[in-house]
Amino acid sequence: MIGFKCKKCSRINYPKRARCLSCKGMEFEEVELGKECELVTYTQVYNPPAGYKGDPPLMLGIVKFPNGVMAMGQLAIDHPKDLKLGVKLRPVWGMLREIGGKEVFGFKFELAKKEQTSKLKLGGIEMEEYRGKKVEMEVMGKDVNWKEVMKPYPPRKIVLPNGEEMIVRSQTKDEIEEVVEALLPKTVQHKQLFDLIASEMVTEFYLWREGRPMWGCPAESHFNLVGRVGDEIVGVSNGALSSPEVGNSLHTVAIREGQQVGTQLWGCKLEHYFDVLGIKELHAAAESYRGGTELFQTFGFEEHPDKVVHFGTSPMQRLTKRQWERIRPGKIAGKRI
Q1: Is the pLDDT of residue 242 over 80?
Q2: How many domains in the chain?
Q3: Considering just the CA atoms, what is the radius of gyration of the chain in Å?
Q4: Is 134 within a domain?
Q5: Which of 143, 191, 209, 244 is deepest in the core (most CB within 10 A)?
Q6: How far apart are CA 247 and CA 149, in angstroms?
Q7: CA distances from 140 to 68, 111, 136, 246, 293 (A)
Q8: Is residue 128 scored above 80 in pLDDT?
């Protein structure tokens, strides 16, 4: 960032002004403000101005450079918990907002000691390198022979309320692009928090394809179910295992709404977990009010005492094999094909 030093009184002005704030001088020379600054104060704006493309809140702060110059700008901070008065920041150039269809750029401030990935191997699951230091990514079930544990879901035919037949079966990696294309309209539909999971699901499909772990579960334990009516993809559901005995439900998305597609896929996923893969306990997150009240309660889930969902909306839920066997007859529709 550049400041403007008055040639008459040596005061450094920022931003550039017609006259020096101290002596009203009109001649300046450019000087660098510094590589780092410190946070003096900040605020969070939950109703940001039009054209701001980030997610609320918009974080604004006032910073102070070593030469005493103070400046205000956006704070490019991922986690508000990192915002502490006096924290060291550095100016970076980036887009601030969009006005009249044109992008407006300027300086914003990020953490000076931001931990950045210097090397990333798509094929290497456990190890990543951060600034020359190798750290092990925490992945559960690394010593399990997942080829023996994971089995395909036996296809099931389910008649939907409109009379059409939905076929549910395991998805292959060759189908990823087709499934993602079907999900894309959902990724831009933000009527409720639940809609965010379509974007997460797309990411998880590509992580699965590249052999990367998800939510601490190895890529080899990941599975996907797809529901089709004819050639049309009407819903998808995915999950993973942290061990051969514990499943971690990820997401279920009904691409075609109003025909109980999501509810039927959810039942098929539970069947796959308990009856095909043989787990003893399933952990799942109610990412919407409807999911928590209609699905989880009717399926007999109980709150997990020690875990909270990653959206921070509710406690993690769990279902045991014993409870599944008790309610199973009324939760699985259709027949094997």
Answers
A1: yes
A2: 2
A3: 26
A4: no
A5: 244
A6: 12
A7: 50, 31, 12, 11, 30
A8: no
